[in-house]
Amino acid sequence: MGQTNSVAVLVIGGGIGGLAAALAISRAGKQVCVLEQAPEFGEIGAGLQLGPNAMAVLDKLGLYNEASKYAVFPERLVIMDAIKGRELSALDLGREFISRYGYPYAVMHRSDLHTVLAEACRREGNMSLLTNKKVVSIQDHGAEVEVLCQDGSVYLAEAVIGADGLWSTARKLLVEDKPIADGFVAYRGAVPLSGMTAHARLEDVVMWIGPDMHFVQYPIRSNELYNQVAVFKSKRYHEGAEDWGTPDELDAHYAMCCPTIQKAIQYIHRDQHWKMFDREPIDNWTQGRITLLGDSAHPMYQYMAQGACQAIEDSDCLGRMFSLHGTNIDTVFAEYQKERIPRTARVQRSVRTWGEIIHASNPTTVLLRNTIMEQRASTDYSVVEWLYGGHKVKAENQAVI
Ligand SMILES: Cc1cc2nc3c(=O)[nH]c(=O)nc-3n(C[C@H](O)[C@H](O)[C@H](O)COP(=O)(O)OP(=O)(O)OC[C@H]3O[C@@H](n4cnc5c(N)ncnc54)[C@H](O)[C@@H]3O)c2cc1C
């Protein structure tokens, strides 16, 4: 039996969501301990898009300037036809966008953002960040929660935040659901920008769309690196199957694409790929003194680049609720999930709809989609208003997309 430790707030998982939450809760005056299963805090070597909704929270945490040192601020979000190689639509991210939403749209290396958050956490006087702490059981005893790690150590906490990602242990306390796959897989990674020639405009975030696929490109780390994400639907996927989304399928699927993508795909690392999952939204994240945050609460496909942004929004809300309701954990968690569940459920569902739009293969649907996209003005912000127009938007009565 390992040692027993008492903490005020325990955060399980030191990803972007867990660290942002730890910081926000610490700023609300609580002692916080983060347990991370990995031997080191870190993130994978790929890019991350951050909408103004996330940048606003980073600013509130005092990290806007620090994060901006590593960020790239693109001029436009562009949608290209992956087969014909032509532009379909764009969203202007310039002055009008910034004045409308208060903050710019940024793209960063994941590990740069993670490092900025981890360093800020380490500067907090009342926080500890622990690695090699895989949580294996969580028990709510009413006045406190008992958390057991694989190494035998035990933590007694007044409140626990399960920020342990898609395969969350904490979520199992609430619901028996499983991550849902629909056959999509992602290959991703960043390469030095200097050696990269197969791209659209470097000032833009570009999403190439085509039948059952999309391909994303943008520069990161102050324009040193170029990030690429290649996504496609595996023809070999069926429920229970293991061997799907392999590199030979990637090449076969992308053979239909325009020459720029065919060339760019050669820069994609093939040694690792990510099968895509989400889950159905749930209407409760809380059991007693345990609640969920980020991907453990609302895992979503990445097609709208909002998974981490929503986790960051969650953190802001949780921090505010700790500030407002202090020691009453029941109220903190009740108010937190009341604000966050409708909003994140809407994003989860909208991402699925957006996935169907961008991955369409029926020629008539594609023709209609492309015609509508081509007619949109780049300063028409109506499609993103609900998402970026203040992250406390009441979402209940709004249509999905
Ligand atoms: C291809 C791709 C592209 C994406 N692009 C974007 C984008 O551009 N913008 C965006 O906002 N989002 C994007 N996302 C989504 C985003 O990556 C996630 O939503 C976000 O990282 C979730 O953060 P999290 O902290 O909730 O979970 P995670 O990042 O999964 O972190 C969970 C942490 O918990 C730890 N953990 C798990 N179990 C335990 C345990 N039992 N004990 C202790 N520790 C544990 C894990 O090791 C991990 O460190 C993308 C996702 C993918 C797959």
TrEMBL record:
A molecular-function term among this protein's GO annotations: monooxygenase activity
Cofactor: FAD
PANTHER family: GERANYLGERANYL DIPHOSPHATE REDUCTASE (PTHR13789:SF318), MONOOXYGENASE (PTHR13789)
Pfam families: FAD_binding_3
Transmembrane helix found in the keyword field: yes
Record's keyword terms, sorted: FAD, Flavoprotein, Membrane, Monooxygenase, Oxidoreductase, Plasmid, Transmembrane, Transmembrane helix
Domain FAD-binding: 7-348
Residues annotated as transmembrane: 7-25
Origin: domain of life: Bacteria
InterPro entries: FAD-bd, FAD-dep_Monooxygenase_BioMet, FAD/NAD-bd_sf
Gene3D superfamilies in the record: FAD/NAD(P)-binding domain
Protein name stated in the entry: FAD-dependent monooxygenase
SUPFAM superfamilies listed in its UniProt record: FAD-linked reductases, C-terminal domain (SSF54373), FAD/NAD(P)-binding domain (SSF51905)
